[in-house]
Design goal:
Elements (H helix, E strand, L loop, with lengths): L14 H6 L4 H5 L8 E4 L2 E4 L5 H17 L4 E4 L3 E5 L2 E3 L3 E5 L7 E2 L4 E7 L5 H14 L4 E6 L4 E8 L2 E8 L2 E4 L5 E4 L6
Parallel strand pairs: 4-7, 8-9
Antiparallel strand pairs: 1-2, 3-6, 4-5, 6-8, 9-10, 10-11, 12-13
């Protein structure tokens, strides 16, 4: 038995549109199901690499922990994004959203309470340097950066438009916001 193909190539950003930087959030929402994960950076489609197993597992375990421990007015989410502007979007690994949560792929920054990025070799520059600036500019109150091997969580709070380190740990993360948190790091370690 052989797999049949339609002869069509998988979706990829158009090189001319990339140079023009004129993709919009609406167009990203209309991508076919087989398209890769895409973020927008000033109208340029950035294809986000598929995360490796430990990256996914850490994110999934964090999603589960937040789902089990967050107050009822907050919902944990993965594989959805934030519409930063008409020409910018980001897809954090894990988010906490204010309820009620509409059934959509992109959320406005004011509905997002927390974004968490699991750092991988291919994402470290964006996760450590670029994304925190963008999330802060959008007014998202909390940003977590999760380093791997060993797992270590750095939790930041938005203060006067920039993120300040609130706590970090490789053993137990203790925070009072966005809710009272005592997160044993082993609970999110693959």
């Amino acid at each position: 038995m052989t797999a049949e193909t339609s002869g069509e190539l998988a979706w990829a950003p158009n090189p001319v549109r990339q140079r023009l930087g004129n993709y919009t959030v609406e167009e990203i929402l209309d991508l076919p199901d087989e398209a890769p994960r895409v973020e927008l950076d000033n109208g340029v489609a950035v294809v986000v690499p598929k995360p490796a197993y430990h990256h996914q597992e850490t994110g999934n375990l964090l999603w589960l922990w937040l789902r089990q421990h967050a107050p009822a007015e907050l919902a944990s989410a993965t594989d959805v994004g934030v519409a930063m502007s008409f020409a910018d979007s980001l897809e954090p690994d894990v988010m906490l959203l204010r309820r009620p949560v509409p059934n959509r792929h992109l959320f406005q920054p004011d509905q997002v309470v927390l974004v968490a990025e699991v750092v991988s070799p291919s994402t470290k520059r964006r996760d450590r340097l670029e994304k925190p600036v963008l999330y802060a500019r959008a007014g998202i109150p909390h940003y977590w950066r999760i380093e791997q091997e060993p797992v270590h969580v750095f939790a930041y709070d938005l203060v006067n438009g920039t993120y300040e380190l609130a706590a970090d740990s490789a053993e137990e993360l203790v925070l009072s916001a966005p809710f009272d948190i005592k997160l044993p790091i082993r609970d999110i370690t693959p």
